[in-house]
Design a protein that fits this description.
Blueprint: H1 3-13, H2 18-25, H3 29-36, H4 44-51, H5 58-63, E1 87-91, E2 102-108, E3 124-131, E4 134-138, E5 141-145, E6 150-154, E7 159-162, E8 169-176
Helix pairs in contact: 2-3
Length: 180
């Protein structure tokens, strides 16, 4: 997906200039410009911060204008990637009309992370490491999780995911309420 073109389209639909969106999101005008020109690929936390200026969740951003679906089954190629090349976050049921639960299939390349800022949001989240290893930091406490290891925590606590290994990491996670 062309993140830059999508941000430009969504921003225009909200009737905002780059300068106004930057002001609302607390970022520089140059940041918005670089993203829209696809000269930078924003981290999940950076894109989330920009979208707070609309306000819009990540899932709304990626499914904006999508018709609600009544599907039950989804092929792998139907899951939109809410992340980028280094951190891929594939959302199950993106355009479901009432998605109270967020389910993600996550891939972290070696050295990839969710960004320099700790994440916080409403609800709870949990997941299981399927392949590789991930360092999860929650409220200042870090632990490396390996295949079969799992986590579950209140998402209001500052948290961050980082692949500190030399192998890709795959996680299946769920959170409620849906924040993407």
């Amino acid at each position: 997906m062309d993140i830059g073109a999508r941000l430009r389209m969504v921003r225009a639909r909200f009737g905002l200039s780059q300068r106004e969106l930057a002001k609302r999101a607390g970022v520089t005008n140059g940041t918005i410009s670089l993203i829209e020109q696809n000269r930078v690929s924003p981290s999940v936390s950076s894109l989330k911060k920009v979208l707070e200026g609309l306000p819009m969740s990540l899932s709304d951003f990626f499914t904006f204008d999508a018709e609600p679906e009544h599907k039950v089954f989804y092929n792998a190629d139907e899951l939109p990637n809410l992340g980028n090349d280094k951190v891929q976050l594939f959302l199950v049921g993106a355009s479901h009309e009432r998605r109270d639960l967020q389910i993600l299939r996550e891939f972290y390349e070696p050295g990839a992370d969710t960004g320099p800022d700790m994440l916080t949001h409403e609800g709870q989240e949990g997941g299981v490491v399927i392949r590789g290893a991930i360092e999860l930091t929650v409220n200042g406490v870090s632990r490396i999780l390996n295949p079969g290891d799992a986590y579950y925590f209140d998402s209001q606590q500052p948290h961050r995911f980082r692949n500190v290994s030399s192998e890709p990491c795959e996680i299946v996670s769920a959170s409620s309420p849906s924040t993407f």
